[in-house]
Amino acid sequence: MSDDLPSGPSGSRSDEPGTLNALADNLSPDTRDLPTKKRIKVIVLSAAVSLAVVAATIVGTYAFDLWTTESKTRAGTEAERGIDLARAPFIAHVSEVDVKNFPLDYALDRPLADAELKHITEFTPERQAELVPYLRTLGGYFLRDGPYFLSTRGKYLSEFNLQMHSDRQSQITITDMRPKVIDCQPSTGVAVISVPPDGVSAYTGLLFDLAAENPEAIIVDETDNRGSPFFASNVINLGGGAEPANLRVQSLTSHEACEWEIEVEYADSTGEHTSVIQNGDVPFRSEALPRDADQHWEWQSRGGGTWVNCRINDNAVCLSDPANR
Questions:
Q1: Which residues, in sequence order, are CB contacts of 222 under 8 Å at separation 6+?
Q2: Which of 42, 61, 123, 249 is the most exposed, having the fewest neighbouring CB atoms within 10 Å of its CB?
Q3: Which pLDDT belongs to residue 83?
Q4: Gap between the Cα atoms of 208 and 20, Å rounded
Q5: N-to-C CA span, the chain
Q6: What is the pLDDT of residues 73-125, one digit of tens each?
Q7: Cα angle, residue 112 at apex, residues 111 and 113 outer, rounded to 5°
Q8: Can you tell me whether residue 175 is helix, strand or coil?
Q9: What is the pLDDT of residues 217-268, one digit of tens each?
């Protein structure tokens, strides 16, 4: 009797266990002693476990990468925030107001020489573009009367330009600015040159009355809120792409020269803070006219205009004289 298997479809079916066993031998040789069906189950189960392990590894790796990426992002953001907050909250630049026109008061802490007086009294308001630069070369200081809408009789106004900006990426908000007077002494001026106004004058910016009991920033712009506290209805935002603040800062004194600084209250993402603005490394200085200057010349426009010596001419009524202000 022959051992050969019959050919045809029945022969193909009889080959299936052998093919499966051959495949099982390749995939799992350790299961040769098991029945074919059981071997297949073991192999399928092992494959499923392997796939699950691979999938878990992939998911775990992705989750770990995601977590570490988010952690790194958070750490980077916190580091950037720390660097940003380490920057100065704002930077202040102070510059002189370019006095180009009248009215004005000019004081000098030394007597004017005869030649200087002669040169000054040759000027007329029509030549104001020449007078102001000349006065500046003598080394004195310029003053103005206080705004007409405030009670500023006997007080003198000094002013400067203040630009404030911030390099921070995050925004800061200035909520108040107040002057802190350090010291005031009588004016040391001995020579005064004055060109009083013919009418009232308008001023723009913030004004501090250093002689007030509790001075605060006053609005002096030509608005409905003129004369009101600026920070009662306004704030100044800096940093975070905000435009720099350009302010004309004015101060009032009364026959005394005062040294002072500006205390700034501001808020950022960490809370409320206080900083100080000075003129570089020194306090601001606001001057005043002396009560009784040794030399005092005033331009008077009546009668075609003339310079009057307020200390010699007994008939002269000098509007700029402290006794008349």
A1: 202, 204
A2: 61
A3: 86
A4: 99
A5: 145
A6: 766 667 777 888 788 899 999 998 876 656 678 899 999 999 999 998 888 76
A7: 115
A8: strand
A9: 999 887 888 889 999 989 999 999 899 999 999 999 888 899 999 999 999 9
pLDDT in tens, 180-199: 999 999 988 899 988 765 54
**Angstrom distance (rounded) from CA 281 to CA 283:** 7
pLDDT single digits (tens) 39-70: 667 667 676 667 777 776 776 676 666 667 76
**Alpha-carbon torsion, ordered 135, 141, 147, 152, to 10 deg:** -130
Does residue 9 have a cis bond before it (omega within 30 degrees)? no
Phi-psi region of 115 (alpha: psi -120 to 50; beta: other; left: phi over 0): alpha
**Is pLDDT at 295 greater than 70 in this prediction?**
yes
- Amino acid identity for residue 299 in this structure: W
Gap between the Cα atoms of 219 and 165, Å rounded = 21
Number of alpha carbons in the 13 Å side-chain half-sphere of residue 230: 22
Would strands 191-195 and 206-209 be described as parallel, antiparallel, or unpaired?
Answer: unpaired
Closest CA relative to residue 196, chosen from 110, 98, 125: 125
Sign of torsion over alpha carbons 299, 155, 294, 319: positive
Q: By C-alpha distance, which of 237, 218, 213, 236 is closest to 228? A: 218
Cβ partners under 8 Å of residue 92, min gap 6? 162, 163, 164, 277
Q: How far apart are CA 182 and CA 283, in angstroms?
A: 8
**Helices in the chain by DSSP H: which ranges?**
9-27, 36-86, 114-120, 128-137
Cα–Cα nearest to 266, from 229, 241, 239, 246: 239
Q: Helix, strand or coil for residue 229?
A: strand
Query: Measured between alpha carbons, how far is residue 241 from residues 41, 126, 168 in Å?
Result: 68, 45, 9
Cα-to-chain-centroid distance, residue 146: 28
pLDDT in the model for residue 315: 57
